[in-house]
Amino acid sequence: MIIKKIFNNNAILAKDSKKQEIVIMGRGVGFKKSVGDEVDENLIEKTFILKQKDASEKFKLLLEDIPTEHVSLCYDIIEYANNILSVELNDYIYVTLTDHISYALKLFEEGLNRPNALIWEIKKFYPKEFEIGLKALEFIEDETNKRLPEDEAGNIALHLINAQTNISSNKVEDIAHQTKMIQDILNIIKYTYNIALNEKSLNYERFVTHLRFFFQRLNKNEKMEKEEDDFLLKQVRTKYKKAYECMLKIQKYLEKELSDEEQLYLTIHIQRVTQR
Questions:
Q1: Lower CB count within 10 Å: N or C terminus of the chain?
Q2: Three-state DSSP state, 1
Q3: For position 165, what pLDDT does the model report?
Q4: Any residues with CB less than 8 A from the CB of 136 and at least 6 apart, and which?
Q5: What is the mean pLDDT of residues 250-270?
Q6: Where do the TM regions start and end (predicted)?
Q7: pLDDT tens digits, 239-253
Q8: Domain ends where: 167, 188, 206?
Q9: Dihedral of CA 235/102/211/228: which sign?
């Protein structure tokens, strides 16, 4: 195998004899190496072969954006999930779950907690995925010495549910309507900021994923419980004034009064997707 790209000392992109791209992880696998060198196969610990091209490209972006340790950790969680679940998981799980857990750890370090308003529904309707989520919290604690709250087990379960390719999709009409609304919301942001959004960025991917879950809740008439303490929202409203004003435009477009929590998440995502 030949090295095609070096992400850092412990992660590289290689090509095998069949010209297939493989992401390789291992301690020191990229250390003092150059593009075109042979891969030291004795240093290989984990390999990623993502067949979906878009997922593969996003995963490579992810490797440049978050710690290698988080990628390795999520690989172990996904491998565990694959062994427990008797369904095929979409390649995107390597992107979405890794991105989510890395960001959850960042928020945890900053003392912020993201409540999961669907926690009881997830426990009831998706017990197997939730149990995997709880096991994932153990993986995370063993690796980082950080014990994330139970809500995160629910969030991890949601990613696993979303990645199951055999889960029945919504009606075609619903998907078409949802797609149009997502595009309308993105247009509101573009016109408010007078910018073109980078559709290949991770922040864009995060935002669209959030909107998909948001519309799933709307379709099922599920509501996020309103938090009594809106301290975080007040802080965000002051710090990201333009993003908050943009969120209000989106709320008006939706013709729906959003909870403080939904307003908070939308405002943060708008701020992130319009930066860099």
A1: C
A2: coil
A3: 55
A4: 77, 80, 81, 101, 153, 156
A5: 89
A6: none
A7: 999 999 999 999 999
A8: 167
A9: negative
